[in-house]
Write a structure and sequence with these properties.
The protein has 341 residues and is of the alpha/beta class. The protein has 10 helices and 12 strands. It has an 8-stranded mixed β-sheet with strand order 6-7-8-3-9-10-12-11, with helices on both faces. The structure holds adenosine-5'-diphosphate and magnesium ion.
C-alpha cells in the first residue's frame, strides 16, 4: 500500500445566496497516490484547486468547504486510516506530528504577539507531553541549528524577521516533530530569488535527513524542476497528469501539460511563448466532459460528453485524456455525502 491513497475525492465550496446554491467544485473526483519518501510537485494555474486539495489531504475543512465524497487513506508505521473519518482527538494527534503543513503565507502559523520560542514550545508540548522542558529546549535548538537558522530567531517576534527568515522559521516549525508527510503550499512564492533558493535548499536538506514524503505546491515550474521527483498537473479541480519530472518536462502528454511546458521561458530563446487559448473555466460551472475540452486543440466528440479517467499510461505515468485511453470516469453525478454535514 502507498503512504497516501486518495480515492474519488470531491470537495466543494457550497454557498447560498438569494435561495440559490452555488457549488465551487475545487476538488472534483480526484484519485491519486503518493509513495513513501517521494517529493511530488503539484502544479497548475491559480484558482485550479491546489490549496483546497492540500487542505482536504490534511483534513482542515471549514465551511463553506465540504467534502462530498472520497477517502484520504494514510498507511505508515503499521498505522492505517482514512483521515476524513478520524475523531477530533485522533486527528489532532496525527496532524503536525505525522502529517504536517507549510501554509501559504508564513504569518499564519506564527502567532504575531508571541515570541517564536513560545510557538515552538506549544507545538512540542501538544504532542510530546512526557518530555521535560530541557528536552523541549534541546529538540528545538538542535533543529534550528541543523537548519542553519540563528538561535536568535527563537527570541524574536515574527514581525522582527525578514520574509525569508520567517518562511524558514515556519518550515522549521512544521518539521520539528519529524513528520511522515509534509504539504507545502507555495513555500517560495513572494520571496525574492536568492531567498527562494535558500528555502528550496532547506526543503531538500530536510528531506535528506527526515526522509519525509513531500507534496510541494507551486505554479513556479522552475521550483518543480529543482526539487520535485514527480510532478502532478492540476486543471480545474482535477489532476490531469502525473509523471516523473524528466518525463513531464521533456515529453508531456496531456494537451494542457504541453501548453504549460511550452509556455516556460527558455534561455536564449526569443520566440513568443504560446499559452493555451482562452481561460480556465469557472469551477462553479465547469464545462461537461473533459474540463479542458473548450481549450484543447485535439478535442474529439467524446471529450465533450465524458470525463476521462486518470489511467496508468506507462509505469509512473498517469494521464486523464481520451487521446491516450477511452476509459471514462464513472459516477460523477452520484456524489454521496458521507461526512461533515
Ligand atoms: N472560502 C471560499 N469560498 C468559495 N470559494 C472559494 C473559497 N476559497 C477558495 N475558493 C475557490 O475555490 C477555487 C480553488 O481555489 P484554491 O484551492 O485556492 O486554488 P489554487 O490554490 O490552485 O490557487 C477557486 O475558484 C477559488 O475562488
Ligand atoms: Mg493556492
Amino acid at each position: 500500500m502507498s503512504l497516501l491513497e486518495v480515492e474519488n475525492l470531491s470537495a466543494y465550496y457550497i454557498t447560498h445566496a438569494y435561495g440559490v446554491q452555488r457549488d465551487v467544485r475545487a476538488v472534483d473526483n480526484i484519485t491519486f497516490s503518493m509513495e513513501e519518501n517521494e517529493i511530488v510537485g503539484l502544479a497548475g494555474e491559480s484558482g485550479c484547486g491546489k490549496s483546497t486539495l492540500i487542505k482536504v489531504l490534511l483534513a482542515i475543512i471549514k465551511p463553506p468547504l465540504r467534502v462530498l465524497s472520497g477517502q484520504v487513506n494514510y498507511s505508515y508505521d503499521g498505522k492505517k486510516f482514512n483521515l476524513l473519518t478520524l475523531e477530533r482527538e485522533q486527528l489532532r494527534k496525527v496532524q503536525w506530528e505525522d502529517i504536517s503543513y507549510i501554509p501559504q503565507g508564513s504569518m499564519s502559523t506564527l502567532n504575531p504577539v508571541r515570541k517564536i520560542r513560545k510557538t515552538f514550545e506549544d507545538v512540542i508540548k501538544a504532542h510530546k507531553k512526557s518530555e521535560s522542558r530541557e528536552e523541549y529546549e534541546r529538540l528545538m535548538e538542535e533543529h534550528i541549528k541543523y537548519l542553519g537558522l540563528p538561535l536568535e530567531v527563537l527570541d524574536s517576534y515574527p514581525h522582527q524577521l525578514s520574509g525569508g527568515m520567517r518562511q524558514r522559521t515556519t518550515i522549521a516549525l512544521a518539521t520539528i516533530l519529524k513528520p511522515k508527510i509534509i504539504f507545502a503550499d507555495e513555500p517560495t512564492t513572494a520571496l525574492d530569488v536568492v531567498v527562494q533558493r535558500g528555502v528550496i535548499q532547506m526543503l531538500k536538506q530536510l528531506h535528506e535527513e527526515q526522509k519525509n514524503t513531500m507534496l510541494i505546491v507551486t505554479h513556479d515550474m522552475a521550483v518543480h524542476a529543482n526539487v520535485a521527483e514527480k510532478i502532478a498537473i492540476m486543471y480545474a479541480g482535477k489532476i490531469v497528469e502525473i509523471a516523473e519530472k524528466k518525463e513531464l518536462f521533456t515529453a508531456p502528454k496531456h494537451p494542457y501539460s504541453q501548453f504549460l511546458i511550452q509556455s516556460l521561458p527558455r534561455i536564449g530563446d526569443k520566440r513568443r511563448r504560446t499559452s493555451a487559448p482562452g481561460n480556465p473555466p469557472s469551477l462553479a460551472d465547469p464545462p461537461p466532459g473533459c474540463r479542458f475540452h473548450p481549450r484543447c486543440p485535439y478535442v474529439k466528440d467524446v471529450c465533450k460528453r465524458h470525463i476521462p479517467k486518470l489511467i496508468e499510461y506507462e509505469e509512473s505515468h498517469n494521464i486523464a485524456c481520451f487521446l491516450y485511453s477511452s476509459e471514462i470516469e464513472e459516477g460523477e453525478e452520484i456524489v454521496q455525502e458521507i461526512i461533515r454535514s
